[in-house]
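Chapter review: from sequence to fold.
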Amino acid sequence: MAERRRDTRQALIEAGWDALGELRWVDLFPSARSLSARVGVSTGSFFHHFRSIDHYAEVLARSSMERLQADVGVVAELLHRLARGTDGVGSVRAAAEADAVLDAAAALFARTDPELIPVDTLAAAAGVASSEIVARFGSMVGVATAVASRAVLALGVDDAAQPSDPVDHVEARLAALVEWTRSHPALAQVLLDARLRAARSSGPAAVPANPGQILVEPLQVLRQGGALRRPVDVGTLATTVADGAMLRVALQPTEPTERVTRETLDLALHGALEPESWARGS
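The token string follows.
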């Protein structure tokens, strides 16, 4: 009986991934009823395994650790955003409104410090009510955190000219993060502050993006090629490198990007790579 329950729970998780793939992550989050139907169980069985659709979204996000090597907090936030509109007709519209707010905020933040922009100004620019912004993001700090998170994660989307060497790939993405941090000091500070608050908080809170996520993919290639020492955790290494570079830029904003990038990687990777895999500067 216990094994059958485990199988049902796993089948429901797999059904969620299949549904999200079919919906391309832009339509309604799959409902408990549709997920149960996919597996051939009742909705009562669904809620036996998961307390709520939000709980299911969290479990689905955590399963992404093995499936995607992604930052669980970021995926959880995305899934919870989708799940808020479950079984309703407004979730697509709500997502579009959130995107409109972030687009308008990014344009405003390019000209003005986020802390100096009233919610009403952003609401007028985005074409939504101020109450909608407060309900979704909590405050202008929340908006700025979401804008920064989106911008940083976009740095992990490569073009066709990405380096073929995984070490060069790590270096290119880190250089992009350093440049973004230097070009957007206020947003970078908001993101770092939000990450510190989230780390210290024991209650539920919106989880900001982990900048290290953009380095996980090329570091994982190094791991698969046997270049990383086995005890090294890829996620921890990626976070250490990215946070170190951002903090260095925040403290020494005039340092050249190449110097920040190379010295940060030298310090981090000399201890993580097998000696024959890191021969730079020799």
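Two observations follow directly from the output. The domain at 89-138 is CATH 1.10.10 (Arc Repressor Mutant, subunit A). The chain has 14 helices and no strands.
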